[in-house]
Amino acid sequence: MAQDLLTLMRQSYPKFSKGQKAIADYMLSHYDKAAYMTAAKLGICVGVSESTVVRFASELGFEGYPSLQKELQIMIRNKLTSVQRIEVTKEQIGNEDMLTKVLNMDIEKIRRTIDEISHEHFHRAVQMLVNAEKIYIIGTRSAAAMASFMAFYFQYIFRNMHHVHANSTSEMFEQIMRIGKNDVLIGISFPRYSTRTVKAFDYAKHQGAQVIAITDSTASPLAQNADALLIARSDMASFVDSLVAPLSVINALIVATGLQKQDEVSANFARLEQIWDEYDVYQKSTEENP
Q1: Pair 60, 117 in one domain
Q2: In whole angstroms, how far apart are CA 204 and each of 173, 178, 198, 223, 260?
Q3: 20 to 30 Å CA-CA from 166: which of 35, 39, 57, 82?
Q4: Domain match, 238 and 122 both
């Protein structure tokens, strides 16, 4: 929704019923927790029925409570501090089996990514990369690991690939200052979004380059300028970002571009195997004596 959800609640407050006012009061004070509660759990917490929670969502103009919940999650995703994320994670997981719960949450993120990602934008991204003169990859903080992973494999596929290592905004601009209209910038960023990556996107677009965004939603600051938008779910509220779905999307990009340049990639690896063998890069396996 164009209007801030909390502002909408405040403006609509006078016309709410007593039960709806109780829901609004809780959401306004504890929006970080309410965003990850089911309608039934929110009703129990506030002291109203589940149907009252559903009618509350309709009163605000949503088709149902899941739509309201999704809007609230998008709104707060970049506002939660690390301390708030820890508190929300405790609410979500509680005393359940931590390993099973977290793995199932990651599985659900991959399922949602399959449903939401645009195949058209994915194929567009592949063609942009295959046809690019130079490729730049940027990801900071937790996204830096994904950028490094992508850069590691892209070096075997593309001749002119640049992994942007930037400890400051000035260093970042020094590394991408030559980007031009025949080049592609890949930016990876998830809440809380990196200002440095957003600035790199703006600069690359201004220089006429094409930009590929790997991010979590159309509300991401990277989405507006993206020529190809690859949405991957990462909305675990914990202080630890869930990177399983984004990494799967990156794997798909690596495989798809590698197949487009299969002959060149095969030749590169054939040469590398000789080098690795000659210089003992990998430990050779030895057969045990019977």
Answers
A1: no
A2: 10, 9, 10, 14, 25
A3: 82
A4: yes
Task: Look at residues 108, 101, 2, 16 and name the one whose alpha carbon lies nearest to residue 57.
Answer: 16
State the pLDDT at residue 92: 59
Q: What is the CATH number of the domain that holds 230?
A: 3.40.50.10490
For residue 140, which phi and psi values (nearest 5 degrees)? -120, 165
- 83 assigned to some structural domain: no
- Answer whether residue 101 is part of any domain: no
Please check whether residues 65 and 193 belong to one and the same domain: no
**With contact defined as beta carbons under 8 Å apart, do 150 and 186 qualify?**
yes
User: What CA–CA distance (Å, rounded) separates 287 from 144?
Assistant: 39
Q: Dump pLDDT digits (tens) for 59-92.
A: 999 999 998 988 887 776 656 665 566 666 666 5
Beta-carbon count within 10 A of 166 CB: 20
Report how far residue 22's alpha carbon sits from residue 30's, in angstroms, rounded to the nearest whole number. 12
Give every CB contact of residue 39 below 8 A, 6+ residues apart in sequence. Answer: 50, 53, 54, 57, 65
- Looking at residue 290, its pLDDT comes to 45
The runs of H, that is alpha helices, within 47-142 are: 50-59, 65-76, 82-93, 98-116, 119-131
Task: Identify whether residues 253 and 125 lie together within a single domain.
Answer: yes
Percent of the chain with pLDDT over 90: 56
Helix and strand element counts for the chain (H, E): 14, 5
Confirm whether 88 is domain-assigned: no
The total of other beta-carbon atoms located within 10 Å of residue 6's CB is 15
Query: Could you list the residue range(s) of the whole structural domain that residue 117 is in?
Result: 113-277
Antiparallel, parallel or unpaired: β 228-231 and 210-215: parallel
Whether 167 and 261 share a structural domain: yes
**CA dist., res. 184 & res. 161, Å (int):** 10
